[in-house]
Amino acid sequence: MLPKLYIVIPCYNEEEVLPITAPEFLEELESLKNDNLISPDSKIMFVNDGSKDKTWEIIKDLSKQNEAYTGVCLSRNRGHQNALLGGLMEAKELADITISIDCDGQDDIKAMTQMVKEYHNGCEVVYGVRSKRETDTFMKRFTAESFYKLLNAMGAEVVFNHADYRLVSSKVLNEFANFKEVNIFLRGMFPLVGFKSTSVFYERHERIAGESHYPLKKMLALAFDGITSLSIKPIRMITGFGVIVSLLSFIMIIYSVIGYFLGNTVEGWASTSSIICFLSGVQLISLGVIGEYIGKIYLETKARPRFIISERTFDKED
Ligand code: UDP
Ligand code: MG
């Protein structure tokens, strides 16, 4: 039997982009159907992430025009990761496979064919990986690539140059649903679920319209979240660094005691104050990093819902 596919697309303030890309997604869906790769009742699911513009109205209109379009609406803006998770959790009940993709047309829609073929070859997770970033500005490319390097160096293992363009079967999503954490970083979490996986390469295009919602500040925040949600390496590094600093201080103490007895101590204001400054800096940074983890624990213990769906374009059968 052919698998039923749901293409899950988070959208936040995308009224300019959606009318252009929605038909492109539909076209790809039709071509997958015509190639007998997916079942005829496969659909596209938009997730409106609390947009402040007409995005949800556009999604509702689309769903009236063609039953291949469906949509869910979050009760407020929860950010890309939560919106995507909301869509995937919704789709896992309805579909056999899901493909998540951004709605701005930057990721090559055509790569879906290859992804579905890999599913037919037995892979449960297929990562879309950007082979080139020529159309990105130098700054975007540099920050994005440093982002992956930083994540890996800090022990958050992610597939290099893979964002959230990915095929996941509902079998994997059902297991993924047991990952109850509130701080989510999907691209780092799917590798943890396991199952047979592979990568499909594609070229990344420019955004069709509108602006990126990931300026440098948000990207840094995402990298920091990714690291602190997936790895405790920074805390270990602090411990290691603490050991080194303590060793050095110990040597310093011996050196100064010997100096004192030999009678060649000088007024040590400069060295003392610089050591104090250095150490208080190190301590503050370390406290900050540890605080970040404690903050995460705090959020996890509250276990608040990660998303709330307020509206659907379809009836949910319970
Ligand atoms: N997005 C979202 N909620 C947000 C921010 C972004 O659902 O709070 C969606 C957005 O509509 C897009 C995707 O996430 O489909 C990726 O955002 P964007 O294209 O701005 O990021 P970039 O591709 O520049 O990293
Ligand atoms: Mg984009």
What report would you give on this structure?
The structure is a single chain. The chain has 318 residues and is an alpha/beta fold. The chain has two domains: 5-140 and 159-213 and 305-312, Alpha-Beta Complex (Spore Coat Polysaccharide Biosynthesis Protein SpsA, Chain A); 233-302. It has helices at residues 18-34, 55-65, 80-91, 111-120, 138-153, 170-176, 186-193, 216-230, 233-262, 269-302; strands at 5-11, 43-48, 69-74, 97-100, 125-132, 162-169, 197-203, 309-312. It has an eight-stranded mixed sheet with strand order 7-5-6-4-1-2-3-8, with helices on both faces. Strand 1, helix 1 (18-34) and strand 2 form a beta-alpha-beta unit. Helix 5 packs parallel to helix 8 (216-230). The protein is elongated, with a radius of gyration of 25 Å. The mean pLDDT is 85. Magnesium ion is lined by residues 102, 104, 106, 207, 212.
